[in-house]
Amino acid sequence: MSGHNVNIYFPEETYQKIKPLIEQRKVSAFVNQAVKKELEELEKKLKKEKEQLKQRLIEVYQDRNKNEKLKKILRVYGEMSWEDISTELAAREKNNVKFKK
Length: 101
What we know:
By secondary structure, the protein is mainly α.
C-alpha cells in the first residue's frame, strides 16, 4: 500500500487521552480511520447540500415557467420603447384621475 508520511501535532491533553487507549504502533491506523470517517461524513453533507441546491434550482425554474402572464407582459414591454411605455402609463394615470372624480 502506498501513502504519505504526515507529522501531526496533538495538544498535550489530546495526546494523554490517546496514549493509554491506542497501542504505540497503532496510532497511525487510528488517526487514518478517524480521518476516513470524518471525510465520509463531510462528503455526505456536501452531496446532500448539492442535491438540495439542485432541487431548489429546479423548483425556481418550474415556478418561473408557470408564470405565463408575467412572460406575456415582459414580452410586450420588451417590444415597446421607453417612450411607448411612458405614453401608456401617462394615459392610464389620466384615465384613473378622471374616474376618481
